[in-house]
């Protein structure tokens, strides 16, 4: 499903963000990528989303090398993936329903399909009763649930969450992780970038640890790896 | 592309305009200001063209005097040569005696008491030559100068009602205003791009979100382009209202003294031009300004 082969990424500033990353995440897996700030985990996600290009190496999604993907095909790649960010990134002038529907509109879905699918997804994330609310009328946890709903509305094969609980309290954080777990149980591959140790320990999923751009640990069912272990 | 996508683009553009009233007012204001200047410059160009056309259409005349004491034979020669000049539309001949007679009838005091030899000098035999093409003036004068029967004095060949100078001045105004118009259009492109940039800067986060959910550049651009086109159309309408409210009454008032000015048909061509400029600048401006924010 996702494969990194000898991937290197060095920024123009000279910072080596990712060094020789080799990694494979199978279909239907739930994987955490953990590490401290600046360890390179977000760079890996940005490369997956084609926001950044690796300096060398190959990245495969569903067997296709995305490093060779032309710019005009990037929207198609992103439509196959749902993305959740730490800062929610909701459209402030659109209500909950419209925010979720927007992800369907951009892929050219018809009105009927949108009317059928959006309430289903809102119901799944427990926000059907807040469909008409605007982001500024919602709590952090609710906003993140809208972001999750938007990420899964097109039934993506991969769901990527970059620090999804970073702006949430413990209770809301756990709710979001449970939601992501539910989505994974339905067959979606879920990749969560985080440094929330307690959540990683509690979930007992695959944990890929990265430090200073190097993947130093990959445990199939484990807890948070000491971020300084590599040193 | 489905109808629901197109209707969504319009809905999104109008919704965004409602929510960004302040930016929209600034954008419309900027466009109206530049468009009013464009309209005024355009009116000057149109009037200059009108003057040129009007003057070109007028029949012009050259007065040519025969040499002092010209004989019947010499006069006949001149007539024959004028008959053969294809540039000449028509001509009239006034003998020295007819000229004197006309002067005496018109203003007897003017010639009273003057000796006969002097009167002959004052009213030489002359030809009034008409032509319709302004370009023929120089050719006719040149040909007249080569005729030995025509006087060689400074005032013997005179372009009596020449449109040449008026056309020359009108052309200068036309060129200057065209250059000014180009400059203003360029300036308006810069102003509109800048105001679009401000609008886009406020929406940069929204654009990056759209990119992350898989929107194509085209899908993101269209509502912004629709917004720019709507703003342009509003600006064109306001400009035309302002212009017709001010220009037409002013021209109508001063037309009696300045008959060369014209306001017929100017609004039609002005509307077309402003719409073309407004929509063109709106589409190009918003597309160009957006590229920076689409690189996510």
Short note summarizing the structure:
Chain A is of the alpha/beta class.
Note down, in words, how this protein is organized:
The complex is a heterodimer of chains A (231) and B (296). By secondary structure, chain A is of the alpha/beta class. Chain A has seven helices and ten strands. In chain A, helix 6 (170-185) links the parallel strand 7 (158-162) and strand 8. In chain A, helix 3 (96-105) packs parallel to helix 5 and helix 5 (140-152) packs parallel to helix 6. Chain A is globular and about 45 Å long. The mean pLDDT of chain A is 89. By secondary structure, chain B is α+β, with helices and mostly antiparallel strands. Chain B has two domains: 3-55 and 166-294, no CATH class; 59-162, Alpha-Beta Plaits. In chain B, 72% of the residues lie in helices and 7% in strands. Chain B is built from eleven helices and four strands. Chain B has a four-stranded antiparallel β-sheet with strand order 2-3-1-4. In chain B, helix 2 packs antiparallel against helix 8, helix 2 (21-57) crosses helix 10 (217-254) and helix 2 (21-57) crosses helix 11. The radius of gyration of chain B is 32 Å and the shape is rod-shaped. At the A-B interface, helix 2 and helix 3 of A face helix 1 and helix 9 of B.
Topology diagram in text:
The complex is a heterodimer of chains A (231) and B (296).
Chain A: E1 2-10, E2 16-25, E3 30-34, H1 41-48, E4 56-61, E5 64-65, H2 74-79, E6 81-85, H3 96-105, H4 111-124, H5 140-152, E7 158-162, H6 170-185, E8 189-194, H7 197-203, E9 205-211, E10 214-222
Helix pairs in contact in A: 3-4, 3-5, 4-5, 5-6
Chain B: H1 3-19, H2 21-57, E1 60-65, H3 72-84, E2 90-94, H4 96-106, H5 108-111, H6 116-122, E3 126-131, H7 136-145, E4 157-159, H8 164-202, H9 204-212, H10 217-254, H11 266-294
